[in-house]
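Q: What residues go here?
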């Protein structure tokens, strides 16, 4: 469990293989509830290579000194990310 926002990661390793590799991140909000958007790549065992970049938005709640995951939204493709950006730009 992460005790600070900087310690939160989505990196995941199993049997010496990094299955989820965090590429970048942006902290959208900090506090008792923290929201982070991550850019990552996922290991594809069939191709023996990493996927193209993927994106996920995750919310964490600080409980008893540690951040615990509460919710996530995975952006399924670059095209979906572009549509989200366009919608937000239209509203702002």
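A:
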């Amino acid at each position: 469990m992460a005790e600070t926002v900087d310690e939160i990661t989505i990196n995941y390793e199993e049997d010496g293989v990094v299955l989820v590799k965090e590429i970048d991140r942006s902290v959208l909000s900090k506090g008792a509830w923290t929201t982070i958007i991550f850019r990552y790549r996922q290991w594809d065992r069939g191709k023996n290579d990493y996927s193209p970049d993927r994106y996920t938005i995750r919310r964490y709640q600080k409980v008893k000194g540690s951040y615990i995951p509460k919710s996530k939204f995975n952006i399924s493709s670059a095209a979906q990310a572009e549509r989200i950006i366009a919608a937000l730009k239209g509203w702002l």
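A: Context that may help when evaluating the design: The chain has a mean pLDDT of 96. The chain has one helix and six strands.
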